[in-house]
Design goal:
Elements (H helix, E strand, L loop, with lengths): L4 H10 L3 E5 L3 H9 L4 E4 L3 H4 L11 H14 L4 E5 L9 H13 L5 E5 L5 H9 L4 E6 L5 H4 L9 H17 L3 E5 L3 H10 L4 E4 L7 E4 L1 H4 L17 H18 L13 H5 L3
Helix pairs in contact: 2-4, 5-6, 6-8, 8-9
This protein binds 3-methyl-2-oxobutanoic acid (KIV).
Length: 275
């Protein structure tokens, strides 16, 4: 059955944990969809893990639409959320509305996600009023990396913790159906989760959130540039891929591949006529 924003709310109301993973292409989305993940996030982390940038700042609307549409074609049951890239919504409510609309029409998203708290509530409200579900994202929001001065856990001081609590309450009030909490101490994420009616999805925010999200290359050992403390490696697919590719190189070089079973045949009489 298709996961919707109602599925998200029902999970929170009934105390069932939600699962979300990133994906950026058709075949990966199809695999994750088939095993029952609730939601696939086409994160702007594609800037790091797919496009090889150092951060998410350079990611464009065209990147998000291109990858989002591929994921949407592969995900039949998971709720597809596409990230709004840097400067596609911060500039004005009008820009936010136009760009959220493009992610729905051209990217075929089921919902959009944008980063920020109180300061982006007018954008959240306008997008939601246009009939587009919004997932908020607070805490260590990677698009603000330059303002934070690096990847630093957020909400450690009383002032910062109060600001995060306010952000969470305000994005809920603005109409967000869920909120991603990233890089925040567990106890603060627990407090936010208890105070909100909408589900919280944690990444580096501890076990008390209503759901979890991870970048799939991190959890599958496919990205080694940087591994945050909160990542658990569930498999080492990177090593499996390297071993397979090494074997491929060896077999092509030795002539062992392709073998007879990988070849097509033709009647000998056809070939004889060619001499
Ligand atoms: O871009 C992304 O992948 C994200 C998750 C890390 C939450 O925003």
């Amino acid at each position: 059955m298709k996961n919707t924003v109602m599925t998200f709310q029902k999970a929170k109301d009934e105390g069932n944990k939600l699962t979300m993973l990133t994906a950026y292409d058709y075949s990966t989305a199809k695999l994750f969809d088939e095993v029952g993940v609730n939601s696939i996030l086409v994160g702007d982390s594609l800037g790091n893990v797919i496009l090889g940038y150092e951060d998410t700042i350079s990611v464009t609307m065209e990147d998000m639409i291109h990858h989002g549409a591929a994921v949407a074609r592969g995900a039949k049951e998971a709720l597809v959320i596409i990230d709004m890239p840097f400067m596609s919504y911060q500039t004005s409510v009008y820009d936010a509305l136009v760009n959220a609309g493009r992610l729905m029409k051209e990217g075929r998203a089921d919902a959009v996600k944008l980063e920020g708290g109180v300061e982006v509530c007018p954008q959240i409200k306008a997008i939601v009023e246009a009939g587009i579900p919004v997932c908020a994202h607070i805490g260590l929001t990677p698009q603000s990396i330059n303002a934070f001065g690096g990847f630093k856990v957020q909400g450690k001081s009383e002032k910062a913790a109060r600001k995060l609590l306010e952000d969470a309450r305000e994005v809920e009030k603005a109409g967000a159906f869920a909120v991603v909490i990233e890089g925040v101490p567990r106890k603060l994420a627990d407090m936010i989760t208890e105070q909100l009616r909408i589900p919280t999805i944690g990444i580096g925010a501890g076990n008390g959130c209503d759901g979890q999200v991870l970048v799939y290359q991190d959890m599958l050992g496919m990205f080694s540039d940087f591994t945050p403390k909160f990542v658990k490696r569930f498999a080492n697919i990177g090593e499996v891929m390297k071993t397979a590719v090494k074997q491929y190189i060896e077999e092509v070089q030795s002539g062992a591949f392709p073998a007879e079973e990988h070849e097509y045949t033709v009647d000998d009489s056809v070939i004889e006529k060619l001499y």
